[in-house]
Amino acid sequence: MRPVSAMSFVRRPWRLLAEASALLIAVVVAFPLYWMVLSAFKPAGEIESSEPRPWTLAPSLDSFRRVFEQNEFGRYFLNSLVVACTVVIVSALIAFLAATAVTRFRFRFRTTLLIMFLVAQMVPVEALTIPLFFLMRDFGQLNTLGSLILPHIAFSLPFAIWMLRGFVKAVPEALEEAAYMDGASRSRFLWQILFPLVFPGLVATSVFSFISAWNDFLFAKSFIISDTSQSTLPMALLVFYKPDEPDWGGVMAASTVMTIPVLIFFVLVQRRLVSGLGGAVKD
Amino acid sequence: MKLAPRLAVLLTALAVTACAPQTSTNSSSDKDEKTGTLRVWLFQEVGNKPKEKVVDSVVTAFEKAHDGTEVDVEYIPIETRAQRVKAAFNDPDSAPDVMEYGNTDTAGYVKDGGLLDVTKEFGDWSEAKDTDPTAKQSVTVDGKIYGAPFYVGVRALYYRTDVFEELGLEVPKTMTELATTARKIRAAKPELYGLVVGGAYTYGAMPFVWANGGEIAAGKGGSYASAIDSAAAQKGIKAYTSLFTDDNCPAAKCAGMGGNDTVTAFAAGKAGMAIGGDFSHTAVEAGKVKGKYAVVPLPGVAAGSIAPAFAGGNNIGVLKSTSHRTLAVELMEQLASKKTQASMFGAMGFLPTFSDVRQQVAAQEPYVKPFAETLAAGTKFVPASPAWSEIDSSLVLPTMFQEVISGKKDVAGASEDAAKKMDEAFGSAG
Amino acid sequence: MNSSPRPMGRWSTPWLYLAPALVVLAGLLVYPVYQLGLISFFQYTQAQVSGGEPTTFQGFGNYAELFGDEQFWQVLLATVVFAAACVVSTLAVGCALAVLLTRVRAVPRLALMLAAMGAWATPAITGSTVWLFLFDPDFGPVNRVLGLGDHSWTYGRFSAFFLVLLEVVWCSFPFVMVTVYAGIRAVPAEVLEAAALDGASQWRIWRSVLAPMLRPILVVVTIQSVIWDFKVFTQIYVMTNGGGIAGQNLVLNVYAYQKAFASSQYSLGSAIGVVMLLILLAVTLVYLRLLRRQGEEL
Fold it and tell me: For chain C, N or C: smaller number of CB within 10 Å?
């Protein structure tokens, strides 16, 4: 199938206009990010100037230095990475199994379950902090990374299952039957045939789990009480987010540091993400 | 939905295991170990290094004096302290033995069952007799003492000497003069706020209420009734909110400001006057206005009087859940001792809570004088009720000021609503 | 050779596959939600949590208090209107840009795609701060460019909500755009060419060819947007400093958080959480019913 973009019926002036506006919109959309990085590199005097300029002639690393000088900054960064990656991998595997169950089988309560998965996404996470606190305390997970990983797995699962359905469905039934004809076992089909085919979808959904786990500061704030070596990046950066007295340079540098890993992750998975999210329509 | 029966079974099962929401058993620990690790939480200040140095020397001396003890000090960011402290009350295993806390939180923390009653030890402590009465009041709830005062903070009027000289202005002697002077500055120099004020700056606003004879609440001991809607208080509220006009501090910019915002604006040279604390001294010194400002006590209603200031500050307390009671109390005394407070003043500029130590440092550092005068003229404190934490954190007073400033309600309406909310809180906290 | 055609047909197999997900969700989602509901029926403040006072059963007392509070209704109304505005704007911008993406060559497409990815990847707390900085009355570039002097965007109720809406749309349109774009690409070009040759206008092609084919995708992005925008928290919390001047920019989620954590009234906060959950549930069930009537299957 030919991509629509190659359609010949779009007349030239219109296409040029469309391309010009696409570029313009891209600039507008990217501008906040540009301004963030720019402000992070601006020397102190230029940030809080009443004549902001969209460039700087004297880039400075002072703001970044303030960010990195915090105690155990590397440790926090690593902790965040551990949390986000664990959440992504575990929730992807669990969601894959569950999505297979709800799409490739007919069984009682199937629709009910699907609705439950949808409903589960509506739970206001912020309100659950207190019950989760006691749960984590009883599990003995307070002050450990586990207290951050477990809830995030739970919160990213429903959406992941919901999104993955389309991909699992898209794998033709004929393929499954052919596999069994060839004597493949159930688990062989699941992991060696279905899994690779659904992988782009897994990547697409993992983006969401990654972001939610990476950005978390509510749970970190509430569950990591006495052991600072288990703290995460947003906690280290929160120091700069003082509503009363914003250190804009520090805030922007901290924001840059926090955004970059997600950005890298996005660029890495970009292609799969586009094909992945489209999976739902290919019936 | 066919799910119903199954769900019902599940819910019954859960109901058997937990039929009421969970709570902690935060009873005081009976243990009083004489060795082991003591955990201490102190606030992380802007520019924390000097504070750490002073604390380190106290800790080293303490560890030397007590064989087999170790002190683990952690500096917690002020922004997250509420969650951390609540969590510590809920999970005694994570709780520190000794912690620093804001003096407005005392009553709330006591009600939450977190702080240890140290009345006896405080009475036995030789240095305690020199503690000034206001500071002592801030660790006292219902006649019992829950900690040792660490430092006090009061606010006074910062003004720009260069601006005053250029415009030929006199330092205001009354609250009315304060407002007219502020408008004169703004009229002559429209790029400056006259007196920079903040809608969310409760402790900058309260002196106006107090100076006019108003009170936040009236009462003693356990029962309080709001008094913020009294005629006198309303006069004060009016005096403060009338400063949020285009000819002094435009509402669009000032209504959302908090205390630090106003100090930041003054330090950056954007205001003729500001209400700042002794603890703001370092920040202002580091700003553009260094050498171009002076501080006087905030004037009251009558000429020559001083408006009552809020006596803020922090205390050091011992947590009820500590298993090292004797050691923890002793460490608290060391951290809040005259010697530590004197060096803490040198390091951070925190005003000592001992009258004699404060006189000594005032003699060395002239900038302390207006703050010491303000303290001497009499200060006010927030109601010593557990409800105060709630009133404070649900922003009752800032909301009231902001409602008036933004014209959503008039002074009478906003103050009555605030009074109603406060009375509800007082009532429920008993 | 095993001749049985479908060894996956046993009834227990799907439950086996579902088991890990169900265990995790039951323990970490259903149980806390159950606790949430329970708390909303009790008197439960910090004093009860830390064991200073016994918990007491309130029945519907907390709900009565909530529904009797004029502010609650105000916040509820603001939440619904604000979420609706966010959903509509996000969907409109996302779909329009998805169509635009199909009309341009590789370079502008890549540029727009990367910019959108950047916006998407930005953590909510970061994005909120950056937008706040862009519109800062003193140091922000927007007021300079628009010549607004030191106009404060967060002072007025509507302008503050508008600012938050811009940020929400900025960070959530990429999901809609990418998904819809991927969906359009999966539509055979021949179908569109045929429609174009018949002389159908762009709007007509979208309405009568693309939209029906994209319906499953549109359903997903709409439901997701409703869920996300109704629960918006970080943006309001950061950009209006916890709810705006005198609480004018509160939405339910922030209101619940303020009640629960700032004022330690966990039971009231929980009650608000339960109300939110019920509202979202109702919206979704109505939506699903409509879908089913149109013959869509889950």
Answer: N
